[in-house]
Amino acid sequence: MDLYEIPAWRIAQGVISGDLRAVDVLESCLERLDSLEGYIRACLDVYVDEALEEAERVDRLSQEGHHPGPLAGVPVLLKDNICVKGRRTTCGSRMLEGWISPYDATMVNLLRQAGAVVVGKTNMDEFAMGSSTENSAFFPTSNPHDLARVPGGSSGGSAAAVAAGYVPLALGSDTGGSIRQPAAFCGIHGLKPTYGMVSRYGLVAFASSLDQIGPMARDMGDLALCMDVIGQRDPMDATSRSFEGPRFIDVIRNDSLKGLRVGILRGFDEGRVDQELTMVSLMASRFCLDAGAAVSDVKLPVSMGAGLASYYIIAPAEASSNLARFDGVRFGPSVTGDTLGETYQMVRSQGFGPEVKRRIMMGTYALSSGYYDEYYGRAQRVREAIREEFRQVFRSVDLLICPPSPCLPFLKGEMAEDPVRMYLTDAFTLPANLAGVPALTVYAGRSRTGLPLAVQLMAPWGEDRRLVMAGAVLERAFGAPSVVG
Ligand code: GLN
């Protein structure tokens, strides 16, 4: 096994015990990145020198007998909407091209304190709006399993980088599925934690009531290890809170699901879902049964029905407000019109791509007086009904299984001209964001044509540990992802 293939938890163990050097691991990862990046194009920035310095520092600490932290020497990549001080943060947008972040996101501080080595930034759909990474203003990223296909999105760069073995672990953000769907498309695991479990300080906001940062990895143990580091209350994010419990890394050792009630989602438009994806969901429920769980059918008619429409009002409404700050005064291309209004217009016309403009217009319309109640108000009432539906369902089951997406990774360009078709692919992931509950996608082998398959698990609010524990059981059953390419 090459060093770049080793899971994060084993890297950390090796670096802590002195059997491995962080610098060797990093060099192996950088070589891997160098040899494939021309094809995959997952990264927007790579910090070679600074990363080598960080790795050397970790090795020194370890040699001097200090504990370098639970992620000692683990190379990580960050989605480019997470701020690293003194570095570019573009959000995949021309609007922020050349903008240098003046501070570190809480994620960066926590990862570095834990001994991780921040290697750089990954490509994404502009301002995280999209499901294919084709909305990046810079270039599209390719799926390492098939370069003609999309890696999913919006955290497509992070997913592709982990799948291809650039790094064992990356962070993404998930507003309606952007961690889980690209993880599924690239054949790795991805977790969207409970809203509030991970700090959003230093994450450029898309839709603040839905956004959540989370880990993406090829190994369930790595997701667990990362959650133990990043799942902290942060005084800098008033919506974050602490969720007491055992360490994630201890919970996943459990291989029995005895006493757990697992619901398999039924009654959605099954005909529209890829048959192999439906099949692996059934297989997953069978594996849960074998591990001692009780399995039954459940339905979420509101979430799987009106959820999509509600999300595509609420997310754009919040985005239209969050993105109002990009007006050319502090951020954006330096163009000046004859009047202030004209300057705003020029900056926003040039700085934003078509999908972001579409969202801002939808959101502004939904919030405008006369339409507010009809659109935004109604979408909020649907959201409340979805929360209630989840509360009800989680009275009778402890975990839920459903497909992560209706389709396998699609071809580049296949949906780019049809935004509504692209939105429809988010139907299974966005309910968890609307309800605030945690959700995980787990790699589930390959399709007949060799593309990755995955299943999605959801758990009640705050029960992320249970989710990752079940994820580890499924990982053992389906087999762990390996590096591709
Ligand atoms: N694909 C969804 C959207 O375009 C979700 C994006 C996300 O989670 N950031 O809004």
Textual characterization of the structure:
The chain has helices spanning 8-17, 22-40, 48-63, 106-113, 156-163, 180-186, 220-230, 248-251, 275-290, 301-305, 307-322, 340-351, 354-367, 373-396, 419-424, 430-435, 464-478, and strands spanning 43-46, 75-79, 117-122, 169-174, 189-192, 212-217, 261-266, 294-299, 399-402, 439-446, 452-458. The protein is built from 17 helices and 11 strands. With 485 residues, the protein is of the alpha/beta class. The protein is globular and about 65 Å long. Strands 1-3-2-4-6-5-10-11-9-7-8 form an 11-stranded mixed beta sheet, with helices on both faces. Helix 2 (22-40) packs antiparallel against helix 3 (48-63) and helix 7 runs antiparallel to helix 17 (464-478). Helices cover 41% and strands 13% of the residues. The structure holds glutamine. Glutamine (GLN) is lined by residues 128-131, 154, 174-178, 206, 315, 426. Glutamine is lined by residues 128-131, 154, 174-178, 206, 315, 426.
**Small molecules held by this entry:** glutamine
Low-confidence stretches: none
SSE string: HHEHEHEHEHEEHHEHEHHHHHEHHEEH
Strand arrangement, major sheet: 1-3-2-4-6-5-10-11-9-7-8
Strand content range = 5-15%
Tally of extended strands?
A: 11
Measured between the Cα atoms of the first and last residue, the distance is 15 Å
Q: What would you call the structural class?
A: alpha/beta
> What is the 3D shape?
globular
Taking Cα atoms only, what radius of gyration do you get, to the nearest Å? 21 Å
Name the average pLDDT: 97
Total helical segments:
17
The profile of the biggest β sheet is: 11 strands, mixed
Helix content: 40-55%
